[in-house]
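Subject: complex prediction, re-run

Hi both,

The earlier run crashed halfway through, so I resubmitted it with identical inputs.
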Amino acid sequence: MSALLPLEEALERLLAQAAAEPIVETECIPAGAAEGWVLATALVAGLDLPPWPNSAMDGYALRLADWTGEPLAVSQQIFAGQAPVALQPGSCARIFTGAPLPEGADTVEMQENVEVLADGRVRFCEELRLGQNVRPRGQEVTSGEVLLEAGSRLGPVELGLVASLGVAQVEVRRRPRVALLSTGDELVEPGQPLGAGQIYNSNRALLAAWLTRLGCEVLDAGILPDDLAQTRARLAALGAADLILSTGGVSVGEADFLGQVLREEGELTLWKLALKPGKPLTCGHYRGTPLIGLPGNPAATLVTAGLLVRPYLLRRLGATRLEPLRFSVPAGFVWSKAGGRREFLRGRLEQGRAVLHPNQSSGVLRSAAWADGLVEVREGSTLAEGDAVTFIPLSELF
Ligand code: AMP
Ligand code: MG
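This time it finished cleanly. Structure:
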């Protein structure tokens, strides 16, 4: 048996290639349209957040030193959005959540803990602690501090932070253009009639949606027939892409048209990964454009795209976090036969345990729709119920 390439090693090689061919051009775009893009320059705070000390509660603001235990008169009312005057010595201020603390005040008591007397003064019923219920100026960030590093992917939280600084435009790495190529004489696009021996192209739809979520621009290069002349012509007609992503046609023994064209007009290496599903993978260049060829079976496409192409593309964009989150969970199944390849099984968490879909065929996509994630079983290992396995939520791969 020829040695299979361990997953970690394949990832390392792909990441090294990605680092050698970064997509460095940047764009300034409205923050509202930047979800999923990678920040090209650090987001530096141009102001303190919050910009002034403010109340975390609806209540009363006072200077703690003014409090002797006697009730205090209320000298002003401060709503959020108002600018208060300095606190009159010996008094307190009615204050609402998010309103600026008046100069001189240092402590807020929540309204539930005060008694409003008939003469309008308030009695503080509980012990007070200096600074309680006050959000100090700069609690979240101070001006000049880096709030998001370059290489951060902009998700909802990051966009919230961008907005909190009043920033309306962000500088991001431009979107990668990925040419999607499906190979196979058997493939037909949805909407067309199905002939004898044909199946519908499901990988294109899967990968197009997945790439769009990753922040890529998808160039649909269509279905490539298993034919040398057409393969040559189709590749030559591809517009400028940052990556050609193909599926199918990489199994050993298959008529190797894509491989032949790459050998003529670029280079390629064929990998046999210690990975299941997803053993054969093609890596190369066509006229200088990087190409990754994924196996054609839909579940293998999913696994290799999520575990290898995703970090590869993110690295090309300079993203700092590449790897999906993984969790260690007890196995809710038995794995009695140690395999020679790392398996990623379609599974779910049930009562905190990883359970497997009964159909793990690499040709079956339906079990991935049932699944919440991939259950990783390392090569050479067997498992008893309750043994720790790694679970990667599918959402982490998308
Ligand atoms: P291949 O890697 O070309 O040998 O294909 C492996 C298996 O995946 C075969 O059963 C193909 O019919 C199937 N397959 C290849 N490409 C696709 C695709 N785009 N959509 C659905 N199935 C595919
Ligand atoms: Mg094929």
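The pocket of adenosine monophosphate (ligand 1) is lined by residues 182, 184, 186-187, 199, 201-204, 247-251, 254, 295-298, 363 (CB under 6 Å).

- K.
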